[in-house]
Design goal:
about 20% helix, 9 strands, 2 domains, Rossmann fold, seven-stranded mixed beta sheet
Length: about 170
């Protein structure tokens, strides 16, 4: 027997006017972005998926990625794609993107935010945060995060937030 609670909070919200989506996945952050890519392509959108991991062995299997998506890889050890971080790929692709969606570790979001003033300013950048959740219902405030608009709960108000609202 399995007891589950979900879905919690709010997910990614593509704008109906968007035509080109840039999806940035750090490691296991690929999970929600595959579904978003499939949804976007089913609606006729252009999807570019940036996938990063420490090594080629840790990348999500290519045969499970949507075949119509443009996929670019980055590995920290250089065994697949460029050698470096997935955020190293962002600057060259952000101009053509109507919206940017990201899922990965906090360090990835901080790197994106530090590039923000130069390349991400004025772009919609939605990120999915992860936190341990005590209750998952918004009662315990165990998953709280500070935003420009005050304290928010990842389980109730998120897990998707605007990058510029969290990282300044």
């Amino acid at each position: 027997m399995l007891d589950m609670l979900g879905p919690l909070g709010h997910g990614f919200v593509p704008n109906s006017a968007s035509r080109n989506l840039l999806l940035i996945a750090g490691g296991i952050g690929i999970a929600p972005l595959v579904a978003l890519a499939e949804r976007g392509m089913a609606e006729g959108l252009q999807v570019t998926l940036l996938l990063g991991a420490p090594t080629q062995a840790q990348l999500y299997p290519a045969n499970l990625l949507p075949p119509q998506a443009r996929v670019l890889l980055a590995t920290e050890d250089g065994t697949a794609g460029i050698r470096g971080m997935v955020t190293d790929l962002v600057a060259g692709l952000v101009r053509e993107a109507d919206q940017i969606f990201a899922c990965g570790p906090t360090s990835m979001y901080k790197a994106m935010a530090s590039q923000g003033a130069q390349i991400l300013e004025g772009k919609s950048v939605q990120i999915s945060l992860e936190a341990r959740m005590g209750c998952g219902m918004g009662y315990c405030y165990g998953c709280s995060v500070e935003t420009k608009r005050g304290l928010k709960q990842i389980c109730k108000d998120g897990p998707v937030f605007d990058l510029h609202d969290i990282f300044r």
